[in-house]
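Researcher: I'm preparing a figure for a lab meeting and need a structural model of a single chain. I don't have an experimental structure, so a prediction will have to do for now. The sequence is pasted below. Please return the structure as tokens so I can convert it later.
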Amino acid sequence: MATVSKRLIASYILDWIIIIGIVALGAGLWNVTPNHRPFTLTDPSISYPYVEHEKVSTATLFVVTVIVPGIITFVVSILFPLPVSIASLKTLLSRSQARTWRKRLWCWHTSWLGLALSFALSFVFVQGMKNLFGKPRPDLLSRCDPDIENQARYALGGYPGVLNGFYLVSSTICKTRDQDLLNDGFSSFPSGHATYSWAGMVYLALFLAGQFGVLVPWMPYLRQDKNHIHDDGSFPLTGARHANGTSSRTPTHAATETAKPAAPPLPSLLLLLIPICVAVYITSTRYSDFRHHGFDIIFGALMGTAFSFFAFRLYHRPVVRGGGSSWGPRSNARAFGFAFASGGGDEDGARERKRTDDVETGKLEDGRGGAGMGGIVNGH
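Model: Understood. Here is the structure written out token by token.
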């Protein structure tokens, strides 16, 4: 077994340190008092009752959107494909299958890296934006217990002497003694539950689609040479064979069409719909519990989805064209930064720049995927 470069290991340890640092920053922002946006006591959109027992608590949210996807990605990475017989199980456990186990461990590592990054980005952006915008929740007035008799004393805008009640007041009008409850009332935008649920569940759906080959059919761009018709890098399409046993240099239309992927069976699509339905339910509870306005929920769902796609693609190939398998490990040249294409550097650096086994290309000089970690390849 080839030894693993310490520099390569350290580069991925640094990735984990950065992710943990992002989460720590988000935790720090969580304890910051948000901006208190002025409001009016006659606004019906913030006059909903306060629901003490949420349908999906913060603890439940963390378990469903982080712990459960983490367990599923681990099980799928390590155990699938399952051995179909005792003989295949013995073969899998034999020393000759060390490369297969390295591939599975690498798939597990990249799946957790992407999931952790998706959650970390969602966490820090949600907490930071909540503090910056300070948008009142739909149940703010129930939390506030306003001093109605002296409301003109807290006026910030409008015309208190002309239109009684139709003016903005500050949060100092609130008589509640529960300051944490009041501060949370100014954390409506964006919805954290919506962001975290879509960040975790969409990432899980992408991972499952890649690992189980649930791909939507697509028609690639075809290019032709004298021996083969190729799509744009996915796979070669061999020529049609005539009745006399010879192959034509130009494949027939039927041959190229039958070589294309078919639509996946609908039961496999249901596997991907389960996490999406979970995200939809969690999101809906924030509206029915009067915790967020509609726009807060939609924006949070879109932001979480964007982070999940970014984190997944950073460590995995595209689900459609690349099958969703993990990128290979980085090369030593790009372990801690950029590998410049030309100019400067010593002989060793120039030699490293010639290697193609980096995370962006996912190729090796001998045509295989992945380079480091003792022969780990891009697939699982």
